[in-house]
Amino acid sequence: MNLLALASIFLVACHALPATRDISPALENVVKSAGSGLDAYLKAGFVRQARRLKNTPVSLQLGDIFFHLDDDTGILLQNIRLPTLPALTAQSITTDLEYLNAKLQVESDSAVIVADYEITNNKFIGVLPLTSTGVLTATIKGTQISGVAGLAISDNIFQVTNMDLNYQPSEVTIELSYYEKDEKISSQVTVDSIDQSLLGKITEEIEYRMNDIVRAQLNVLLNQQFLDQLFLGNDQMLTHYRNHAARVAINANSIIDQLLSLANTALKTVGVDPVGFPDIYESFSKRVFIVRWHGSFTANKGGVDGLASLHRYKDVSLSIEDDVVTIFGGIGLQDLSQIWEIVFRRFPGLLVQSIVRPPNLSRFSLQIGYSYYRAEFMGFGPTGEFRVGVQNPSIFLKLSVKVGFLTASVEDFKFEHVGQLQVDITGLDTIKWLIEQIANWVAGAFHDLMNSGLEAKMKDIINKIAKDLDLKPFFPPKRF
C-alpha 163: how far from its chain's center? Predict the structure, then answer.
């Protein structure tokens, strides 16, 4: 177990086991009263926002996404955007200020996603490369949003941090359109689930972005509710509440820190990190003046390093239902350069730092490398090797604890968002658009790797560790 995990457990002991119900009856009454008023305010606030924001143009950009429909067909979605902000209305909002969360039942009327698409068929590459371009418009109607939003105290207001939400649309319509001899040709399909449509390939990315939208609209409302007003100017009670909230956060964080520390060791032991990376074999096209040229890109002998560097980069959240405590939140992968900076700050006289300081890509959490690639375009065919640095990938982790049995289990573990990618490759320095394509292909290969069973394997390993966690220091008898 590393020093951070040990320090977290020490803090728990120093703060008198904060997962216990250490809230006084007087503070409990004040907190319930403040929560009741906040619930009514938030629900009414969503109604006002829905009227004001309906059809508001925003052009929110979501980034590029590449995926395969089958072994031969690749789809690149570029310039993905929400032209208008979806209006949200709240059926119910119930805050639990004692444990800093809000249970939500929210509906989104319609969310429209627009993207430029390029469909490429690799089957006849070199003989008859097939490429189609156009515009994709997805309309997601009547989405029921339910779950829990974690809260944190920021100065004199609450802010939404972690989100554990479920999305159930009533209808999904996909329209693909393109031009042929200046004539617009469209095709449309309607289904009752995102997973049954083309969007099923990017469901996690859509939900990740929708979380941002729900979080932002909640925070706009919370920014107008000050804690000292919610506590009716009772500074003493507010101080007690701040201390209580800090203890709850420390305790939840400590459990996750201990879990991740043990998980990183196990992931390395079983060979999850480093691990092989899928081969890339893609075709592409580019219009040069009036001629559209086709090319291909092949990469193999790939590997990824850094998956066993899971860490908590912010406070996690928790909710309580009967005898089950649920801890959830976003975690990430350790930035290797941060580790070195900690070492150099702690030992400023370290003489070898100029030698051992890692290269530029070390500031990324994951490093993906291929020892061979070949690109062919307009007769230009360099070969070599390349690396891709991945920065700020987002991982969602949800842990449930049955307090009566002191047993934990991992309910959810998934890579929500790959993060930012930077390609370090020689031989293609002047072809910026192709380097951007390579980043998209690598991101798509990363999703394929996770969906092929690696993500599930990581979850199983972490779950086995969770079941063996000693939770007695966090949940002492007769006090919870």
Answer: 10
Tens digits of residue pLDDT in 53-64 = 777 777 778 888
Report the C-alpha gap between 110 and 86 in whole angstroms: 6
Range of the domain at 223: 3-467
CA distances from 94 to 296, 317, 323, 329, 366 (A): 54, 16, 19, 19, 39
Query: Is 211 a domain residue?
Result: yes
> For residue 57, is the peptide bond before it cis, meaning its omega torsion is within 30 degrees of 0?
no
- Compute the average pLDDT of residues 319-345: 73
Paired tokens of 82 = 């929400």
Is 472 part of any domain?
A: no
CATH number, domain at 182?
Answer: 3.15.10.50
Q: Is residue 463 part of a domain?
A: yes
Q: Does residue 388 contact residue 422 with C-beta atoms inside 8 Å?
A: yes
Decide if 146 is inside a domain.
yes
CA distance 284 to 279: 16
CA angle 289, 293, 295 (to 5 degrees): 145
Residues 279 and 274: their CA atoms lie apart, in Å, by 16
255: tokens are 């459990």
SS3 173: strand
* Confidence (pLDDT) at 362: 53
Strand partners, 209: none
The whole-number average pLDDT for the span 346-366 is 48
Q: For 177-232, what is each residue's pLDDT tens digit?
A: 988 777 888 888 888 777 777 788 888 888 998 999 999 999 999 999 999 999 99
